[in-house]
Amino acid sequence: MKKSNSKPAFKKPCVKGRPAIHTFQLPRNYEQIVRRAHEFYHARGGMAGMTLNDWLKAEQELKQHAENE
Fold first, then answer.
1. pTM assigned to the model
2. Long-range contacts of 26-35 (CB under 8 A, 24+ apart)
3. Could you tell me which of 27, 28, 35, 25 has the C-alpha nearest to residue 58?
4. Helices (H), ranges, 1-69
């Protein structure tokens, strides 16, 4: 069986010879979202397991509020 000397069809994005690093940026209103999501958490009686739903609900609520202004 012959070994293939060909290079892979894809290339990693590079910046000055180094692999690109993808960073996550927090939303501008991160603190507001955290506070509102925490309020939803307490309103549910502190029951765990709904963190993502609380976050998304808070984010959507704040987005709608900003659009209405």
1. 0.62
2. 27/59, 29/62, 29/66, 32/58, 32/62, 33/58, 33/59, 33/62, 34/58
3. 35
4. 30-43, 51-68
